[in-house]
Specification:
11% strand, globular, alpha/beta, single chain, binds adenosine-5'-triphosphate, ATP-dependent zinc metalloprotease FtsH, 11 helices
Length: 269
Amino acid sequence: GRSRKIESQDAPKVRFADVAGQDNAKREVAELLEFLRDPERYRKVGAEVPHGILLEGPPGTGKTLLARALAGEAQVPFFHMSASEFIEVFVGVGASRVRQLFDQAKKAAPSIIFIDELDSVGRVRGAGFGGGHDEREQTLNQILAEMDGFEGHEAVVVLAATNRPDVLDPALLRPGRFDRHITLELPDLGAREAILRVHCQAVPLADDVDLRKIAAGTPGFSGADLKNLVNEAAMAAAREDVSKVTAKHFDEMRDRILMGSLRTMAIQD
Ligand code: ATP
């Protein structure tokens, strides 16, 4: 069959300004920016910059977005690998795909590798969870080998994301591997307002729309949820064929999203 390629691309267009809130995480990630922009400055004085950074936090808090923004700010290529896809799609070749990914990124250095859902391959080994076990272990072992195989001066930063840092194999967290951790939190009131503002940039809002008020009415919403809310409200306005999105559109869609998540919770019970 047709072999699937690792998603590689030129530097993304996303910038830190597109990531609302998450000030701590942005500050920590920004330290890598200098290095990616001018690795030679670090190499010539023998400074070793950390290669592996773990981004942890609930779904939809902007881990992928932040990784892309770092690549966009540094103007370096971004290699994206979804760990779950690696075991599902590349049966029997997970390890060699990992090797390919790292080789490509090294050739393109300075560059960024982003591994999504690290926990899906990176769970504690030997914890037996059904089929594909060996496959998963081989893929994980290859990731560990690649992390150990970096030369100090190689300008490849590996960011990995997880919302289950508690289940990760401790081998992943050893020095020289994913030894720096950055936590992204669900947004607080101010951050929710800032996220709404980012996603409303291209949306014509009626005068009765108060983003602060919407932020106050959406505790527990992630950045992804808020983005979805803005889009649902805009869709509702489009269905009515009106030229502005009103407070009513936001209220109705928020309620619908809340009902939907309540329903999912009931099903899970
Ligand atoms: P997952 O763990 O589910 O993969 P994630 O933490 O990687 O989630 P993203 O994929 O980065 O989350 O977020 C999804 C989308 O939600 C982003 O593309 C962005 O549009 C929006 N979003 C999330 N967080 C923010 C934020 N802090 N500022 C602006 N937009 C955000």
